[in-house]
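Page 47, continued from p. 46.
Same chain as before, 176 aa.
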Amino acid sequence: MKKIVFKKLTLTLALLFSFTLAFAQMGDSNVLEGVKDTKKYKTIEVIQMDKDLSVLTSLLYMSGLNESLESLEGEHTLFAPTNAAFADMSIEAFAELTNPENRAELVSFLNLHFLPNKVMSSDLNDTQKVDTPNGTISVYKNDSTIGFGGAVIENADLETKNGVIHITNSAVAADK
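Result:
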């Protein structure tokens, strides 16, 4: 019985993920079209406005971390994977991540994408290591590319009322 329920839940989540990606990729691909000043909005509000960050937004709500972001007053940094970054994950990995029984793993995964202080791209340097409660994350930087935990920053320094967002091409991973 539990296997049937788990399979149905996994299928439902996989379909939800597919539909989210399909709808999120419709229309123009401009980041925050129509938003002139992101500094007027909190981080959670900015990512909710960007249709290409809808999967991340959904995961934040599933984990309950949206409430932390809504009430967070201090400055912080968010490395925000795009919907395409999540589409690159295997269905199995995504289903495991979004399984309600694995909420703690989802929270740990999402926490890899946050730093408790504001870090601009110019503050990051090559061979830098960032220690987090969930592991050490390596920084890579050359003339044209900045990497953080294996993710390449595609759109850097999107300042918000309470921090900064760096949009990435994949999920952040701790060093092994």
